[in-house]
Amino acid sequence: MKLYVKQSSLKGRVAIPGSKSHTIRCVAIASLAHGVSEIVSPLISSDALSAVTCYRALGATIDTSDESVWKVTGTGGELSVSDAMIDVGNSGTTLRFAVGSAALLKEGTANFTGDHQICSRPISPLLTSLNGLGANCKSVHNNGMAPLEISGTITGGKTSIEAITSQYLSSLLINTPLAPNDTEIAVPLLNEKPYVEITLDYLDQAGIVYENHDFKTFMVKGGQQYKSFKRRVAADFSSATFFLCGGAILDSNLVIEGLDFNDTQGDKAVVEILRQMGADIVINGQELLIKRVDLTGIDIDMNAIPDALPALAVVGCFAKGTTRLLNVAQARLKETDRISVMCKELTAMGANIEELEDGLVIHQSQLNSATLGGHHDHRIVMALSLAAMTLKEESVIDTAEAMDITFPNYVKLMNAVGGNMHVVE
Question: Global pTM?
Answer without folding.
Answer: 0.96
